[in-house]
Amino acid sequence: MVREQRLAEVFVELADTLVEEFDVVDLLQTLTERCVELVDTDAAGLMLDDQRGNLRLVAHTHESARLLELFELQQQEGPCLDCFATGQVIANIDLTTATDRWPVFTRAAREVGFDTSHAVPLRLRRQVIGALNLFTTGQRPLDDNDLAVAQGLADIATIGLLHQRAVHDQVTLSEQLQTALHSRILIEQAKGVLSAQAGTGVGSAFSLMRTHARRTGQPLTTVADAIIAGHLDAAALQQAAASFEDLRST
């Protein structure tokens, strides 16, 4: 499938999630996954402003990206932070030569296998609410078209988040982002529980949980709460998934 066709499908997919009471975490998770797919990168992490002057990690595509983004926040050094501060794209950073700019971050990034990084802001006009970090192994620079795609996807998420605030005046952006951050904590806990129960990686556990949430029409946080409370376990989710596939095949 040519990228233009796939890009059109992804824009429709993202727009379709922007319904009333949309699931913020699922939207941002989808954004990071599709961005990696469409611009030929290997991993992504997305941070949002908690409206208290701090960035928080909300979505990621790979465990190495999650750990690196958390390290970036801990050290207060790296492209995502600079992108958020300036509201400008930071692209095609060779992590083998950027040691003067980010000495701690570049060393950590290369230790987990990343050689190039990019960051695009979640920005509407002058308002910046977060940043999306993209990572690649090896030297694979992004051209202007790639960066335009990444920025376009980030813009969709930004517009969705800000539009939700405009539609629901009683819900401030700060409260919405805090809810998203709290949801992410619950989801991470549930991923750990499922991973231990099923004996699989956290990525597979998250995929199982997310598929169940979408198939049943429940928010991810609802499914995560049920897993943490013991009302859902890996066996039940796997059985439900198998039953669903059996129905589809008949």
Salient structural properties:
five-stranded antiparallel β-sheet; globular; 5 strands; 250 residues; single chain
Brief write-up:
With 250 residues, the chain is an alpha+beta fold. 60% of the residues lie in helices and 15% in strands.
Your description of this structure?
The chain is an alpha+beta fold and 250 residues long. The chain is built from ten helices and five strands; from the N terminus they run ααββααβαββααααα. The protein has a five-stranded antiparallel β-sheet with strand order 2-1-5-4-3, with helices on both faces. A hairpin with a 5-residue loop joins strand 1 (43-49) and strand 2. Helix 2 packs antiparallel against helix 6. The radius of gyration is 18 Å and the shape is globular.
Q: Give the % helix.
A: 55-70%
Order of helices and strands: HHEEHHEHEEHHHHH
The main sheet orders its strands as 2-1-5-4-3
Gyration radius, rounded:
18 Å
Which structural category do the helix and sheet elements fall into? Answer: alpha+beta
**Beta-strand fraction estimate:** 5-15%
Task: Summarize the main sheet.
Answer: 5 strands, antiparallel
Average of pLDDT: 86
- State the end-to-end distance: 28 Å
What overall geometry do the principal axes of the alpha carbons give? globular
What's the tally of helices?
A: 10
Per-chain topology:
Elements: H1 3-17, H2 24-38, E1 43-49, E2 55-60, H3 63-75, H4 79-86, E3 90-94, H5 103-111, E4 116-124, E5 127-136, H6 144-167, H7 173-198, H8 202-216, H9 220-229, H10 234-249
Antiparallel strand pairs: 1-2, 1-5, 3-4, 4-5
Helix pairs in contact: 1-2, 1-6, 2-6, 3-5, 7-8, 7-9, 8-9, 8-10
